[in-house]
């Protein structure tokens, strides 16, 4: 039924909307076992340091990295129950640009993402990130609200 999509990318930051986006992507992927699901998380320690006036980003970076690794490890259990191939990926840098770079390099067919992400110290994605992805993506973007 969804033979036009073979690779789905889900930017994930553990926010409620990213959880809904992942559930939507899983539902889509289950319709065809040949669909590959890639879940990606992007941390941006420079943004957190700028926002909170921290001059040394090393402790923030380590905390973000550990939190992201734990989050993806927990997520891998859920993904292992799928009949589809599913992978998790962790990147550092600008969230929007990292998502688009991944979509381009993997030649994804669809991006499924929340309209907004987390805020505060845990912030990974912003509403501006989903806007950036919609504008720059070479493939369709399904925004979950």
Automatic annotation (TrEMBL):
UniProt record similarity statement: Belongs to the universal stress protein A family.
Gene3D superfamilies recorded: HUPs (3.40.50.620)
Protein name, UniProt field: Universal stress protein YxiE
InterPro entries xrefs: Rossmann-like_a/b/a_fold (IPR014729), Universal_stress_UspA (IPR006015), UspA (IPR006016)
Highest taxon, organism lineage: Bacteria
Pfam families per record: Usp
Domain UspA intervals: 4-145
Transmembrane spans: none
